[in-house]
Description:
Blueprint: E1 2-3, E2 13-26, E3 31-35, E4 42-46, E5 49-60, E6 72-73, H1 79-90, H2 101-110, E7 111-113, E8 116-117, E9 124-128, E10 135-141, E11 146-150, H3 161-169, E12 173-177, E13 186-187, E14 195-196, E15 203-204, H4 213-241, E16 251-252, E17 278-283, H5 293-298, E18 311-317, E19 342-348, H6 349-353, H7 355-368, E20 375-378, H8 398-415, H9 419-425, E21 433-438, E22 444-448, E23 455-457
Parallel strand pairs: 1-7, 2-8, 11-12, 11-17, 17-18, 18-19, 19-20
Antiparallel strand pairs: 2-5, 2-16, 3-4, 3-15, 5-12, 6-7, 9-10, 13-14, 20-23, 21-22
Amino acid sequence: MLFLPESHRLFPVGATTFKFPASTKVLGTAKIYEHSHRDGGPSVKPALQLDQVVFTAYYPADIKGNNIKKGLDWLLRPLHASLHGYAHYSGRSWISTWILWPIVYLYGSLLKIPVYPNAPLLRQRLTASSEHTQARFETRPSSWPLVIFSHGLGGSCTAYSQVCTRLASSGRVVLAIQHRDGSGHAFISSTTDPGLYIREKDLIWPSDDEQTMVNFRRRQLDFRRHEIYLAFRSFKQLIQDGYQGLNYGLQSIDEKFIDWSSWSSDVDSKTVECEKNVLLAGHSFGGATLCMQFTILSTDPPADVTTPIPVHKALILDPWLEPIPSPGPCPRPQGSDDVLPQLLVINSEKFSLWKDHFARLIDVVQAWEPEKRRVLTILRSQHESFSDFPLLPLISRRAARIVMDRIMELSEAFIDGNVDTSVDEIATRKMEIRIIGKKPDGSPQRQLVGEVGEFIAH
């Protein structure tokens, strides 16, 4: 097997993928072709039809006395659908050639996340002993903080496992949404055929609709907003009311045995804290778009979902702001006793060198955090540095590991309330730019001055 790097922190990590049916809802008017194998010809279906919500929970796991083999598939199954999804998303059809396909297929089949699939949720906290590196149980039960994570374009509920497992290993429950809006490389459904990333040329528009990809992106964002609220509502019901049986509420997507009782709260304690201090997190399209972090913080829940999300903080990784109407989003008016959620944006070097985009980001963040340094740039980081891709086995490089360590160091300092102290204590760079060459179009190739892993506080 080929395992991604493991997080050696306080807790072993479990992972369970949940699904639940949603009342069918179609957003927008765009359609796409669906190639049906049953009748041999293509048919047309809504591009954005919400009928099921899927997410993977990463969490501190109780593996004592449980004979559970470590290793969760990194690529969604069926494997051929996932690999075709990446080829479709990237436009690299050569991946599917008869020469390379067996190699890519074998590599994908061996990729594993170092977690315990469907392990019970740990009901008690662990603390690290000063004399031993192993963890030990405390006698006091406690509830785990909740994080909701949204992937970017081409991503999935497993493509950010490094971020999710490190947060879980430190003592949090992370719900990684598998968005089914055509923004991921693929999605696997128990109600329909596998879906692929939706490109502009895949869309079929009614004649009276605004036929632009920006318009479709905004519909996708609304779709994602619904998914996040529905996922939170269903998970909260599991924690509060327990498992409701095969015909109601959350189910395991692989239909394997789950100790549902480990998730249920009781009179004396809650397993997961869903009533306050929820952290929203996401990358790129999932990090700072209209219906994701900023819009969830600045608007009420959808009309058909009455359960609000008690957001305390939002961790936004290299956000892509182009689909958001300008100006915005801005905080909604607050009452005298209301406190705005705290934000932290961690940017890649390339996105901070994108002048217009970066200027708009600063304006948006200052509306929420007018007096604090809430935008950080990590030197030599790329847009994909926040995902698992640079850390895949056999291709990982030392620089990628340094960048991921810095991302998590700053993220956890923010979550724990210590980010300002960390920024003050760690030597930071000023934003200085040097020219290192020319791009293919003849424009200057710019780079921030400094070494890999250093960061700038804006």
